[in-house]
User: What shape does this take?
Amino acid sequence: MNTATKTRLQSAQVLAEKNRQKKTAMLQYLAQKFRVDVFDILHEKGTGHWGGASSVTELLTTLYFDVMAVRPEEPRWPGRDRLVLSKGHASAILYTVLANRGYFPVEELKTFRQLNSRLQGHPCMNETPGVDMSTGALGHGMSVALGMALAARLQRRNYWTYLIMGEGCLDEGQTWEGMMAAAKFKPERLVALIDYNGFQLDGPSNEIMPLAPLFEKFHAFGWNISPTEWNGHSIREILKSFAWVQQQKEWPVAVIYRTHKGRGISFTEDTHKFHGALIDDQNYANGRPQLMKTLEELEAVL
Amino acid sequence: MNAPSKAIVMRDAFGQALVSLAEEFPEMIVLDADVSASTKTADFAKAHPDRFFNVGVAEANMADIAAGMATCGLRPVVNTFSIFLTLKGADQIRNTICYNNLPVVLAGTYGGLSDSYDGASHQSILDMAIMRALPNMVVIVPADAVEAQQALRLALRRDGPTFIRICRNETPTLFADAAPLEIGKLRKLREGSDLTIGVTGVPTSMALEAAECLAVDGIGVDLLEIPTLKPMDVEALVRSAAKTGKMLTVEEHNVYGGLGGAVAEVLARHAPTKMDYVAIQDRFAESGDYASLLAKYGISVQAIVEKAKGLVGK
Assistant: This one.
C-alpha cells in the first residue's frame, strides 16, 4: 500500500513537471518503477508476459505521461488520443501505466488475471478503463488503428491514434493489408510504433520469421517512416522521436524503436525464454535486485 | 397472406437501402472488399464517396477497420461475399467486433448457393453456423427484398453486431404488405396442426408452396418463417412444436449448425419433438443455375413435401 501511494504521488509530479530535462529523468525513473511493479505482479500471480512488457515499458510510460492527450477521469472522452497495443500480451505494463495515470486504483493491479478482475489476461476495452481496444490475437492493431484514424477524419476531430506492434504482429498478413490500406487513405495523425526487440515466443525473429529490412518494407508500402531507429529504452531518444513525429506532414507515420526483450535483468534480456514463462521464486530472487539497482541509480539523479 | 408478388434481386434491394438510409443514419459508413459492383454498394459509393471505403481484397482488414471506426461512434456496414466475410474475417469478427460488442453491420452477400455458377469456392453454406456461434451477434436471414431492407435499418439501430445474409439473385416478394420485421420474432405464415415447418431465407417461398401441396393431401402445416436465427423466437417456436409434435426445418445451408441445429437446441430443451431437416447434406455443391442447384442439393418444394410426409407418416 505504501509503495502504491508513493508511486501515485510521483506520477502527479511527473505530469506537472515543466522542466524538460527534469521530466526526462523523472520519466526514466518512473518507467523503471513500473518495470519493477510488473515484475512483482507477474511473480506474485505466477502468470503474464515479462519479456514483451519489459521491452515496451519506456514507450508506454512516455506516451501516457508526456505525449497523449487523455482524461483518466473521463476514459471515453471522444477527443482523446487513442492507443492500440496490438501486442496485447504486454498487458501487465499497460495496466500498470494506466493505473498510475489515474484510470483505476493501483491496488487493483493485484487482481491481474484473476477471476472477477477487470484486468484480463489480454486487454479488454469493455472491462478496463483507459483501454481503447481489446487485443490479444496478434495482427489486428494496424487495421483497428486505421479505422480510428479514419473516424477522426470523418468526424473532423484532431486526436492522434498510436499503434504499438511487435514482431508477432508483423508476422501476421493482416498487418500488411492494413499497411497498404493506410497508405491508400493516408489518415492524418496515425502513428505506428514498432517495439523491435528481435525476439518472439519461439526464438530470435531472424530465425522464426525474418522481418528485415523493416525500414525499407514500410517505405515501400508507402509509409513515412523515421529514418532514425531510436533506442526504445532511452526516454531522451523516445522524446526526440515524438518531436520528429510532430513535425511530419506526410501520413501515415511509423517509428522503429530498438528494444530488448526482458529488459533490465541479465538473464531475461535478449532471449525468448521469458516471453511468457513463469517468474518463479528463484528467478525473482535473482532478478529483482538488478531491477532495484537500476531504479536506485535513476532515483539518485532525480 | 397475399400471394407472392414480383421478384426482386435481393442484393439490389440491399444496395438501394444503403443509399436511402444514408440521411437517416449520418454515422453510417460503407466498406467493401473490391466487390462493390457485385454487392451493389457501388451506388452508395457514388452518392457518398467520403463515406465509402474500398479496401481491396482484404476481408480481415476491412472487418477490423470497421471495428476501429465503430469504437469512435460511426456505424460501419461491411460488405462482401458471405463466404469470405465469415471465414476470412472470422477472427476479426470474433475477437474485435463481437468481443467488444461493437455496432458493426456485416452484410454477407451471395449467401447460400446463390453464387450458383461460380461453384463451391464461392458458395456460402457455413455462414449461419459460424455467425450464430458468436456471443453478442444477431443473425438475420431475410427471405425477400423487403426483409433485407428492413434488416439493415434494424441492424443500424442496434448497439451491437448484426450479420445479415443477402441472396445474390431474384426472390419472390413475400412481405411487402406484412408487419415489419422484428429481431427475435418469427412470422406465422399458415396455421395447421399436423406438423410445423420452420423456414429461413430464400426457401420460404418453397415452403409456402409445399404447404399448399400438403394441404391438398390433407396435411395441415403450421408454417413459421424464422428471419432471425439469433435470437430465436423460443416461445412461438415451442408453442407450435408442442401443438403439432413434429418439426421440419428448411434452410439453404449445411445441415449442421444452421436453422435445423438452432431449432433442435431449443426444442430438445423445451419441447422434445420429432424432427427432420431440409438442408444441404454435409457436402460441397457445384456450378449450375440457382434453382436446379438448390433442387439437386436437396432444397426444393418436392423435398419439403417428401420430408414432411415422412415426418407425419403418410
